[in-house]
């Protein structure tokens, strides 16, 4: 076999090999991750041809957060649900696009896992052809018995996550996932329709290069956040080089860049959004899990996001995540100005 082919690792092979590291593994999680990868391929197919496939533009509806739904939002949401509603691997699902839980139809058997997802993060960027993404979080069910899942199964702290993943649809489509054994990235080769291992064992650089924040909301920030961002800019010390500002407005795109290059993404609470903007279960928890597995850290400004017990399905939370030293510095500034 040619040496170039001997190094090809598909996502299916990688997931299966990782399963072997878990004694007593049944293969259910492996199959669930396969299904997520397949859903990502279907969504990627539509995002790359959106301009000619009548999937650009808005619908007539809004989601639970009052946000206008894009056509691709609805498509992605339906694909993920239908890929997982009949397999016997999932007992309940929750989507950022829906008010309530997504229950498995009664005619299908419920499974052992809980799937929580943001079908299309950054969808306000769809019509301007900027990067968008999909976020997944997977828990074990915790309610006893073999019935369908409940809200209790969904509202678990991030520290209990079994796996998390995200897909970024950009100049190439990448899927990044972790099952608690490090973080690995795969790039979709459209010529063969396979995700191939391109970024094994991702580690976030300890020295960050970038900071990512919606600086247009600066006047609404607390004094602690304003001082922290001034520190990132080097304004408090003329001899210290500033970090570069990079902000796309798609959490996945900003998080992905900083995961690979080092940096911090923040969406703090402010006077207009005192609880923050980002959703704890759909966005913050899974990305915090991936950040931690890559050697980084995620905080709400005072505590580890993975330690927070969710109280409701669409709970919001302030977010600081990325290189550990930069996030811990944010906590320091916020403590000093509390």
Query: What would you call the structural class?
Result: alpha+beta
Spatial separation of the terminal alpha carbons: 62 Å
Q: So, the CATH homologous superfamily of the largest domain?
A: Fructose-1,6-Bisphosphatase, subunit A, domain 1
Backbone shape: globular
- Rg: 20 Å
Helical fraction: 25-40%
Look at the structure and give the mean pLDDT: 89
Describe this structure in words.
This protein has 338 residues and is an alpha+beta fold. It folds into 2 domains: 3-199, 2-Layer Sandwich (Fructose-1,6-Bisphosphatase, Chain A, domain 1), CATH 3.30.540; 210-336, D-Maltodextrin-Binding Protein, domain 2, CATH 3.40.190.80. 30% of the residues lie in helices and 24% in strands. The chain has 9 helices and 17 strands. An 8-stranded mixed beta sheet has the order 4-3-5-6-7-8-9-10, with helices on both faces. Strands 12-11-13-17-15 form a 5-stranded mixed beta sheet, sandwiched between helices. The N and C termini lie far apart (62 Å).
